[in-house]
Amino acid sequence: MKTVIIKYNAGNVQSVMYALDRIGASYLYTDDEAEIRSADKVIFPGVGEASTTMSYLRNVGLDKVIPSLKQPVFGTCVGMQLMCRFSEENNTECMGIFDVDVKRFPADAGLKVPHMGWNNISGYQSPLTAGLPDNAYVYFVHSYAAPVCEYTVAMCDYALPFSAMLHKDNFYAAQFHCEISGNAGQQILENFLKLQ
Amino acid sequence: MLTKRIIPCLDVKDGRTVKGVNFVNLRDAGDAVELGAMYAAQGADELVYLDITATVDGRSTFIDLVRRVAQTINIPFTVGGGISSIADVSALLHAGADKVSINSAAVRNPDLINELSLEFGSQCIVVAIDTRYIETENGHEHIVHTHGGRKATEIRSIPWAKEVEERGAGEILLTSMDTDGTKNGFALELTSIISGNANIPVIASGGAGNMAHFYDVFTEGKADAGLAASIFHFREIDIPDLKEYLKNKDLPIRMTR
User: Fold this and answer.
1) Is the CB of residue A47 less than 8 Å away from at least one CB of chain B?
2) Which of B254, B255, B256, B257 to mutate: most A Cβ within 10 Å?
3) Crossing angle for the helix pair A14-22 and A182-194, to the nearest 10 degrees
4) Closest C-alpha among B98, B93, B91, B118 to residue B40
5) Any catalytic annotation for residue B241?
6) B170 contact A CB<8A
7) Partners of A5 in the β-ladder
8) Alpha-helix residue ranges (DSSP H) falling in chain A
9) How would you classify the pairing of strands B151-156 and B139-146?
């Protein structure tokens, strides 16, 4: 099986690679369109700021490649947000795979932003959460979130309920960082790699 | 619900974990990678690795160790000690660290906080504040210290905490040098003031001696995370017991078994 991690100007992708190493999966880290198109699984990681990242993706044409992929694609953190329609982070038009807008956590809710730390997810409706205990804890670091919508397949709660995971056709996404979410995160990554 | 985090801190010298009382008289507490993996397996929510000799010796940071830690553990970890440039941070993040903690360099050059958060995102920039309550011309004040707590600055800790947030820090690691090593409990009042003022998470550090001290710092101290070193390294408190204790007192805690 060929797994590609999409290479772009994201931050700490090294942790994602180490996580795949730990579960014994091989992968290619590349921005080459042909390599990405011929992969069985595509991981679109993300740490960073939406507008800078989105303009980088536009410059190299990945903004067109990613939405046209047919194999299972898994976007995490900012990767997930860029798969949405729009992000309030510097008012960024994103790739629009999920027709939902990413919003900043409300400042007036008396909660600290970023939402940083371990929080529990619920309402599983995804093959990626198979085998997870109810209310599994995963690690979040983000200031923006997608509200609950028709593509939500796992929810989390911080000030208000938001989408912890999204799914539409061959596109899967998680707001949290699977690669540092302990055994739960590892299970989700393994489930993604096992998808048919 | 967002949980309160328990964070063992591993002070590292030459790849091994050390911890002293008030940062002197170091005692060896073991291999840094193995110890970190053990804590992760026990349910630690995050780890902090501090290269405690870095600032003093002007020694560059400990990339190899960071890489081995990132390869081994599946929870987040922060690294600190002697970080003073964008290049230092870049190297550590690329080795697999999730966050970096800066202290002396931020005091010397506060603009560094802005630069780092713009370059890498606030989420991975932790500003460590080592503070001590000392006599000043205004009476007694909480004053920021650098160089492992040995050197007093002229900066007052409470406004400094607000300033680092405004400059783009994503988290504050607050260590009271007054309580550190005493095992008499965290500096509750100061932690409560700083965490209460902050819109970013505050990790409380210094003084944990028993499980009740963690309860106190999460409630009265309003901390988002509690950090300790020797009480974990020398097995005076087991992390699973601590989390069970806090859970039973109705705090939001991530249970792993």
Assistant:
1) yes
2) B254
3) 80
4) B98
5) no
6) yes
7) A29, A43
8) 14-22, 33-37, 50-60, 62-65, 78-82, 182-194
9) antiparallel
**Across the interface, which of A11, A19, A182 has its CB nearest the CB of B121?**
A11
Out of A15, A118, A182, the one facing B96 most closely (by C-beta) is A15
SS3 content of chain A, % helix, strand, coil (to 5): 30, 35, 35
Selecting from B40, B70, B123 the residue whose C-beta is nearest the C-beta of A116 gives: B123
Tens-binned pLDDT, residue by residue, of chain B (257 aa)? 999 999 999 988 877 777 644 334 444 556 788 889 989 999 999 999 988 765 544 355 488 899 999 999 999 999 998 899 999 999 899 899 999 999 999 999 999 999 999 888 888 999 999 999 999 998 999 999 998 788 999 999 999 999 999 999 999 999 999 999 899 999 999 999 999 999 999 999 999 999 999 999 999 999 999 999 989 988 899 999 999 999 999 999 999 86
Residues of A in contact with B5 (CB under 8 A): 117-118
Who contacts A122 (Cβ-Cβ below 8 Å, separation ≥6)?
Answer: A134, A135, A154, A155, A156
Residue from A167, A178, A179, A190 carrying the catalytic annotation = A179
Residue spans of alpha helices (H) in chain B? 32-42, 54-57, 63-72, 86-95, 104-108, 111-120, 157-166, 188-197, 211-219, 230-233, 239-248
Best interface-test mutation with A: which of B98, B126, B199, B247 has the largest number of A CBs within 10 A?
B98
Which of A77, A84, A94, A178 is an active site residue? Answer: A77
| Distance between start and end Cα atoms, chain B | 18
Q: Do A119 and B1 touch (CB under 8 A)?
A: yes
d(CA B242, CA B246): 6
Please state the three-class secondary structure of B62-125 as a single string: CHHHHHHHHHHCCCCEEEECCCCCHHHHHHHHHHCCCEEEECHHHHHCCHHHHHHHHHHCHHHE
First to last CA, chain A: 11
Nearest chain A alpha carbon to B1: A119
The number of C-alpha atoms within 13 Å of A109 and in the hemisphere containing its C-beta is 14
Q: pTM of the full predicted structure?
A: 0.93
Say if residue B235 is exposed, middle or buried (CB neighbours under 10 Å; 0-12, 13-18, 19+): exposed
- Interface residue B68 vs chain A (CB under 8 A): no
Amino acid identity at A77: C
